[in-house]
Amino acid sequence: MNRRYRKTIIAGNWKMNKTASETKKFAEELKTLLPKAKWCDVVVCVPAVNIPAAIKAFKDMRVSVGAENVFYEKSGAYTGEVSADMLKDLGVKYVIIGHSERRQYFGETDVTVNKKVHAALEAGLHPIICVGESLEQRELGITMELIALQVKSALAGVPAEKLRRCVIAYEPIWAIGTGKTATAEQAAEVCTFIRTTVRHLYGARIARSITIQYGGSMKPSNAAELLAQPDIDGGLIGGAALKPTEFVDIINAANQE
Ligand code: 13P
């Protein structure tokens, strides 16, 4: 973390978990556990149908609500899809774009990720752009090339003044939901490389101000060590974000003065 230059953001990604009533219950429990002063921003990204319940439940808690996906067209005949304007109108602030599960199961590519980033920014949302390599790619030694490609294509055509609203999440696919976390050194190495990539594209001032998260089996027991790395400015948390106590433990790890 480096709070002098950029925000620390702890975000939960609920994936396809919890009903609207469970959302309300989670928020009530979280409210009793959250620290009074927070030095980090807290975000909860929920399934699209739970957004109205989440907006209502997290109101007055200084917890922002995020979506887990968005479609890139503004409106039209796209059965089942949700536009960026629809999310914004509900009060959504963040939207996860290009999560590896969406790339794996729903055919998302670097091209659609880029279109979604543009649509989200246009609507005034803050995209959380996910990048990360598979185990095979890491073993082949092509992690950095792949990350550079993902970052550059996601940000293609994004002007500098809009980049300030973007968050990049490094999520090695082999660490997601596996209980296998990247070591702090592995995570830091890639997050630093992402910042260098942004610096080459946008210059030092902007690179210094962008929030870069780590995601992949982040939990109370490893959060502090990961967040102590200067280029890791928060977490995108799956499993551990489903339990208020564990989520708060991670928030507290980011909340050290
Ligand atoms: P886990 O924390 O369950 O590994 O999930 C990480 C993730 O995919 C967050 O987007």
Rounded radius of gyration (Å): 17 Å
Average predicted confidence as pLDDT: 96
How many alpha or pi helices? 12
**What share of the residues does DSSP label as strand, in percent?**
15-25%
The succession of helices and strands, N to C, reads EHEHEHEHHEHHHEHHEHEH
With strands numbered from the N-terminus, the spatial order across the biggest sheet is 1-2-3-4-5-6-7-8
- Counting helices, strands and paired strands, the structural category is alpha/beta
How far do the termini sit from each other? 11 Å
Tally the beta strands: 8
Bound small molecules, deduplicated: 1,3-dihydroxyacetonephosphate
Largest sheet: 8 strands, parallel, barrel
Contiguous runs where pLDDT drops below 50 for at least 5 residues: none
The coarse silhouette is globular
Q: What key attributes describe this structure?
A:
257 residues; 12 helices; 8-stranded parallel β-barrel; binds 1,3-dihydroxyacetonephosphate
How would you characterize this protein structure?
There is one protein chain. The longest helix has 19 residues, at about 185-200. The protein has an eight-stranded parallel β-barrel, surrounded by six helices. With about 260 residues, the chain is an alpha/beta fold. It has helices at about 20-35, 50-60, 85-90, 100-105, 110-120, 135-140, 145-155, 160-165, 185-200, 205-210, 220-225, 245-255, and strands spanning about 10-15, 40-45, 65, 95, 125-130, 165-170, 210-215, 235. It has twelve helices and eight strands. It is globular, with a radius of gyration of 17 Å. Strand 3 (about 65), helix 3 (about 85-90) and strand 4 (about 95) form a beta-alpha-beta unit. The protein binds 1,3-dihydroxyacetonephosphate. 1,3-dihydroxyacetonephosphate (13P) binds next to strand 8.
